[in-house]
Amino acid sequence: MEYIDLHAHMVSRTTDDYRAMAMSGCVAVTEPAFWAGYDRPGVDAFIDYFNRLTDFEPKRAATYGIAHFTWMCLNPKEAEDRELTRQVLEVIPRYLELPTVLGIGEIGLNRVTKNELAGFKDHVDLAMEYEQLIHIHTPHLEDKWKGTKVIVETLAADSRIEPHRVMVDHAEEHTVDMILDNGFWTGLTLYPVTKVSPARAVDVIESRGPDRICVAAACDWGESRPLAVPEFIMEMRRRGHPDSLIRRVVYENPIEFLGQSPKFRLPDRERSAVAV
Predict the structure, then answer these.
(1) Which residues are CB-neighbours of 192 under 8 A, at least 6 positions away?
(2) What is the domain-level CATH number for residue 60?
(3) Which of 31, 46, 80, 241 has its CA 20 to 30 A from that of 199?
(4) Tens-digit pLDDT profile for residues 69-79
(5) Domain count, the chain
């Protein structure tokens, strides 16, 4: 079954992972800008990273017939440095003009600090100025509920925000209602230990239905599975759900959300040269 992985940090994955994803049905990935595993020393390091996201990764993905899109931001883990945040925000607009950049993300909160919230609002202002989609990171584990609540309330209080143009990612059972009930899209991250398993994601679909819900691997440097979406598909089938419902979650829903950007286009499957 064809699917779109709406959240995959492919800079941290091998080319063999692209190949395996293509063979499993992946036709597109979107890669939010994120933390590099260490705090970057200055704006030049972000420029190097953004250049890789917008040049090298699309070429690497295209080798296997996968369309690669990305999002631009300074990750909340690095937002404590307000001057660095300002410098990075100044260079982001040049990337928003590129054909594979879909919007601002993954912005949000990590430890829910004053500076993180200020950086979050700065990014929202940038997204509004340039009419961009927004992709949001919610905190891990013990900070999940608090951080998600602050994010949702901040966005809900901003009259400029159109909820259907915002993806609030990394939802779990105790935060998904808060996100969906406020009109936002949400993502269920199929990530071991700190997020949800394929089985838990299916539980949410069975409870809430498929509307405005996507699933993704969020594969990165840590323990993660680039084939997590096919694992979700297998769990849905094991429970007897029809392929039409599965396709809605893994393919049609991502297209509905991402398609709000005129840049989002899937490759011509007949013309793609897939090196598998």
Answers:
(1) 223, 224, 225
(2) 3.20.20.140
(3) 31
(4) 999 999 999 99
(5) 1
